[in-house]
Amino acid sequence: MSDVNESQQLNNQSTSYTTVIPVEYTRRVFNTPSASTEYVVEQYRPHDDYIQTEDLSSSQGALYSVSQRVPPASTSYASLCPTEQGGYSSLTSDWERDRTMSGSEAIKNGSSEIVNDKQTSDANATLSAPSSVAGSMSSSGGNESIQQIPVVPVCVYLYNRIALVMEVEDTSSATNEVLCQAILNCDELSLNKQLAIQVFTLWMTSPLLELQLKLIHKPFQIRQNWRHLVEQYSHASYNRQQRDEPVLSFQRNVFFQQHMEEKIKDQKILELLYEEAKQNILRGRYPCEVSHYIMLGGIQARIELGPYNSQVHSTHYFREEQSKFLPPHVCKSATWSWLPISSKNSAEVRLLEQFKRIPHSATNRKLIRKYLEFCWSLPFYGSAFFEGQIEQPVRGLMSLMTHQDIPVLVAINSKSVYVIDDLQSTVLLGLRYEEMNWDYAKPSKEDDPNCLPCLFLQFLVVENGSRVSKILQVFSRQASLMDSLITTFVHHRKRKNVSDETDRPFDQNSENETHASLTSNPFTYATTNLPSLSNKLSKLTLTTFDEDGHLIGQMGSWSFSY
C-alpha cells in the first residue's frame, strides 16, 4: 500500500506545487556579497517533465576516475600493492581558501553531460595522457604493418589501502566495464564476481572533483579531458586546477540499492563497504551526534588496534591518534593539543572508554557488521556529494557587513536530497523526493566565471498554521550534475512504482483511493509528506509563497519580474 501511495505522490507532483520560481533572478558571485547580473530560468518543471532519455543501467557509474585510464580486454598481469596511506583521507576535498570556502567534494550523477562525446573529443594536450600510450597503424598497398601498442600500467585504488596495478592492452580504448571485469578477475582480491560487479564501479576522483563512470566511459580519455572537467565543475582557482591530479578508484555504485546491500553476507565485500563508510564518517560527510561518532570511533579502534592493552592504549595515545578515529570537528582543538591533560568529557577520554567496553570476544566480522548497520540507518548513506553554496540569512547591520555565503555539501541518494553545512557537519535541510520539486537554471552570462548556475529546491511546510511553499537556492558549478542525478533517481522510482502497480492484484478499494488522491486539492495531501527531518530552516535564506503562488516572504538576493 505504501508503494501505491508513493507512486501517487510522485505522479501528482505536477499538481502539488504552484509554479513560483521566477523568470529572472540576480546572479551569484562565488562567495561575494552582491552582483547585478541576471539568470535566465526555464519555466519551472514538475517531476513529470523530467524524463531520462537513457536507461538507468546505462547511466550507472558516472563519476570518479583519476590517474591512468583503463584499457580493454586482456590483462597482462595484476598485482596488489598495499598503500601506506589509509583509504582516501588524503583526498579530502577543500574549496579555494582564498575565497573562504572549505573542503568539500562533489559527486556527480550518471548524466551523459558529464563526459559527452564532444568533451572527450575536445581533450587536448592540456592534461595529456602518459607518453607511453602511443600506437600507430599504417597500411601500404595490400599489406598492413601494425606497430605494437605500448601497454600502459593502470593503477586502481581501493579503500582498504590496496592499489591494484594492471597492464591492459589498448589502454586508451578500454571502457569502465572492461576494467571492472579485469579487477574482478584479479585472484588476489577474491571477490564474488557476480555480486561485486553490482555493488562497485570505477570512480575518478580528486580533491576538486568526483565522477562515477558509466560502463561505456573510457577512463583514459576522461583523464585526458580532466582539465576541462575541473574547469567546468570545480570552484578552485586556476593554479589549483592546474595542479589537480585525479585517481581511479573502485568504490560503491551510487545506484546500488541499499536494501540489497543490507542482505550481503560476503565478508570481503562488506570490508570494502566498511572502509568506504568509515572514510565518509571521518570526513564528516555523514553528520551524526558526537556520541555516535565516539561509538563508531571505538569500533574502528577495536578493529584496527585489537583488544584493549592498558600498557599501550592510554588517554595520551588516543589524544595523539584521535584524528584517525574521529572527524575533525569532533577532535580536540589542535590549539590545545599540547596540554598533557584531558577533561572527563574530552573526545579522547570518551573514545578510550568506548574502546575498553568492547569485549575481547568480539570478532572483526561482527564489528564491521555493527558499524555498517549504523551507517545504513543514516538517511544520507550511499549519497553522491556535490559542492555548493547558499546565502546566509542577514540578521542585523553587522551580519550584513560581514555577509558571506555558506559552503555546503549536497548529498543525493536514491531516496532523498540533503543540504549539509560543510564546516559544522550538520544537516540544514533534508527532503525526500515525494516532498519536493526542483529545477536547474543556467546563468545568463555563462562566460562569466563569477556567475554560478543554480539548483532550486521547492518544498511545503506548515507556517503559522498555514501550508506555504519554500524555495532554497543552491549555487554551484555542479548544479547540472545534481539535476541529472535527481532526475535519474526520480525516473527510476517512477518506473519501479509503475511496475509494482502493474503486478499488484486488482482491488476496487485501492482504485477508489487512487482516484480520490488524484482529484483532491493538491495542497491537502497527507501531512506526513511534509518534511519531517529536523531541518534548520532558520539557518537558510528562503523565499516563501502561499498556496496560490503569491510571494509572501522574500529573503536574499532574488530579483523578480512579473
Automatic annotation (TrEMBL):
Cellular component GO terms held in the UniProt record: plasma membrane
Compositionally biased region (Basic and acidic residues): 497-506
Gene Ontology BP terms: animal organ morphogenesis; negative regulation of canonical Wnt signaling pathway; neuron differentiation
Q: Name one Pfam family in it.
A: KRIT1_FRMD8_FERM_C
Q: Provide the FERM domain boundaries.
A: 152-497
Biased composition, Low complexity: where in the chain? 128-142
Protein name according to UniProt: FERM domain-containing protein 8
* Domain of life per record: Eukaryota
Record's compositionally biased regions (Polar residues): 507-522
Classification via InterPro entries: Band_41_domain, FERM/acyl-CoA-bd_prot_sf, FERM_2, FERM_central, FERM_domain, KRIT1/FRMD8, KRIT1_FRMD8_FERM_C, PH-like_dom_sf
Please name the CDD domains in this protein's record.
FERM_B-lobe
